[in-house]
Amino acid sequence: TTGGVAYVEPVFLVTGPFTGNIKLENLTRSEWVQLAASLAGVGNTLEIDSANRTIKQDTVESYTNITNDNTSGGFLRLTAGANSMKLTLGGAPTTGTVTTTWTDRDFGGY
Q1: How many alpha carbons fall within 13 Å on the CB side of residue 32?
Q2: What residues have CB less than 8 Å from 88, skipping those under 6 apart?
């Protein structure tokens, strides 16, 4: 649950292993983003930084094969308060995890 009164632009850190697509959905905002990525090794990471509009795979900037709902601009936001999120991993194994961090905002947004 975010604090403040404005939307926030989080950082999603996905940790492998998994192969295939990754889809992150903010069900509260009806927004999603999907990437073709493969984190085959345990501990491999994919960082999606919404505020800085960057995607890094194992710390190397990578902005390929991204699709979205055409309203989020490719990067998800969180609404002030509670957000319902969903992570879908394609391929096998699907034991990856996602950690979300953000800074609360008290101005702007909706």
Answers
A1: 14
A2: 21, 22, 23, 25
